[in-house]
Amino acid sequence: MKVYEYEKLEKATENFSQSRLIGKGSHGCVYKGILEDGEIIAVKKQSLGLQKIQDNSKLENEVSVLSSLSKNSFIVNFLGMSHHDDDSSKKETFLIMEYLPNGTLYQMLHAQNNILPNWPKRAQIAIQVSKSIQFLHHAKPNSIVHRDIKSANILFDSNWNAKLADLGLALRMKNDCEKHDEDDSPSHPSNSVTRPAGTIGYLDPAYTKPSKLSTKNDVFSFGVLLFEIMSSRKAIDVSKSPVSIVDWATKLIKEGRALEICDKRMHVPWYMEATIKNMLSIATRCVSQKKIARPSIEEVVREMENVIIEPIKYPLWNILRGLTLLKRKRKRCKKKCSIITTTNVTKTCAQHEGKVEIDMSSRRKLLIREILADKFTD
């Protein structure tokens, strides 16, 4: 693990200037830094509250977790750390990470002036986040529970790929995670004194005490995030009723109105309807009140790859499917026409057949324009 000189970080961030502040949370602030060689980095510094009580535990925990992981394209890249001892005998810890220039998923979904992600992009983001969680749950020697999956902790690199960040609350489990999910046994003696933590709205309601720590806690949070990605509605919004996105979305799904969850500012193309419904179905299972009814993150990733990736990766397949259905409609029309013997009815049917032919041609052009426009629009 690389150790950075504090003086170089101070210079890189212009003495942690407010103009370099790019992120802020309850545990720390993140600053953009430019090193002497031109490398751009992100430097995480303790919040003022934690500095006052000299609590380095969150950043040191994040350093411990990140340094134990191999590099992964779905997790923010950890570069190193730094320490600083000031004149008052206070010791500060700094976390250095790769700089991700395109903000957070929260900003993308909720900022007024942002260009909204299209539906294929939303599905891609969901898959990338699910794979980041899968990577943590498959960590060796034991699974890691993030405990704070939310849109504000999803960052975008220069290519607009999503990466999971902020592992300050993450905990490593000792017992086998699958066994733990089934019997709710304590996960680790050291975790037994670690109180439940997370963000209201995303936090698993079943995570009421330390012994309830489970990988299924992250699965619940991911389900909330899926609803947020699809609707662009905040996890908790006191201006709406119900205030909880989970209560609102699950009610609509039970009433057979799943597509009403979709962001009203974005048209839903017909070829994305099945994909969106599949994602909402996954989200519903993830937020089940019973942990045993929730899928594992492996099941989530597998289902997404089976029912979501292919239609997005090969959108022309959807065009061919639509044209095939129209072709079958034509054949049914011809079959009906063939049993009619009167001249007038035959003419009428022929006219109808011609109309189907024209409609199909128009529909083909419309579908191609619609899909290409949605596919390549940011």
Automatic annotation (TrEMBL):
Species whose genome carries this gene: Anisodus acutangulus
GO molecular function: ATP binding; protein serine/threonine kinase activity
Annotated Protein kinase domain residues: 16-309
Organism taxonomic ancestry: Eukaryota, Viridiplantae, Streptophyta, Embryophyta, Tracheophyta
Tagged with keyword Repressor: no
Annotated positions binding ATP: 45
Start and end residues of each stretch annotated as Disordered: 178-197
Keywords for this protein: ATP-binding, Kinase, Nucleotide-binding, Serine/threonine-protein kinase, Transferase
Entry-linked PANTHER family: PROTEIN KINASE DOMAIN-CONTAINING PROTEIN, SERINE/THREONINE-PROTEIN KINASE-LIKE PROTEIN CCR4
Protein name listed in UniProt: Protein kinase domain-containing protein
Protein family: Belongs to the protein kinase superfamily.
Key word Protein biosynthesis present: no
Spans through the membrane: none
InterPro entries noted in UniProt: Kinase-like_dom_sf, Prot_kinase_dom, Protein_kinase_ATP_BS, Ser/Thr_kinase_AS
